Amino acid sequence: MAYSINQDCQGCQACVRNCPTQAISGVRREVHEIDSQKCIDCGTCGRVCPYNAVNEPSGTIAQRVKRADWYRPTFDYRTCISCGLCLTICPVSCLDLDDPTARRLTEGLPYLKVPLACVGCGFCESVCSVGAIMLVPRSSVND
Fold first, then answer.
1. b/e sequence 37-60, b meaning 16+ C-beta within 10 Å
2. Ordered DSSP codes for 65-110
3. Does residue 100 sit in the same domain as residue 57?
4. How far apart are CA 83 and CA 60, in angstroms?
5. Nearest to 19 by CA among 121, 140, 127, 131
6. What range does the domain containing 134 cover?
7. Across-strand partners of 96?
8. Are 75 and 48 contained in the same domain?
9. CB-CB contact of 54 with 62 (8 Å)
10. Looking at the structure, do residues 18 and 50 belong to the same domain, yes or no?
11. Last residue of a domain, which of 34, 65, 96?
12. 107-126: per-residue pLDDT in tens?
């Protein structure tokens, strides 16, 4: 079940500007709509909405979160096996390998290449089979 926008929406378009999959549409100053086929349940829309107009899949109202408090990935390179699944699943392509000349994913280690693009969805953490990725508050990570 995808996120949804309720009648408290003021059409400010903050969600439209921040959605990584362009799943939200609507006319300015009118209630917007989320396309459940495009929504990846990352929660970005709810974190940026100033009107508490976004319902989480559970039905509760998503709370606005300051961007400085969004989560972002950190990597345990002692555990990482360089499989590259985190790079593949990232909806905003903010991860990359530390060795740009690597011919295979196993020749480099993942890192957050574009920190400001990260929406803190947690997909990278959930796909990591060895638990080498942990999400922490953005404010506790050096860019």
1. eebbebbbbbbbbebebbbbeeee
2. --GGG-EEEEE-TTT-----HHHHH-TT--EEES-TT-SSGGGS-E
3. no
4. 36
5. 121
6. 69-140
7. 111
8. no
9. yes
10. yes
11. 65
12. 688 999 999 899 999 999 99
Query: 17: part of which helix (H) or strand (E)?
Result: helix 14-18
Residues 46-104 pLDDT 10s: 999 999 999 999 999 999 999 888 999 999 999 999 899 999 999 999 999 886 666 65
CA distances (Å), 126 to each of 43, 55, 90, 91, 135, in order? 15, 22, 11, 13, 10
CA dist 124 and 87 (Å) reads: 7
Whether 72 contacts 141, CB under 8 Å: yes
Task: Say if residue 105 is in the same domain as residue 59.
Answer: no
Domains contained in the chain, number: 2
Same domain, 75 and 59: no
Using CA atoms, how far apart are residues 82 and 97, in angstroms rounded to an integer? 9
132 and 85, same structural domain? yes
By the 8 A CB rule, do 124 and 90 touch? yes
Of 65, 93, 115, the one marking the end of a domain is 65
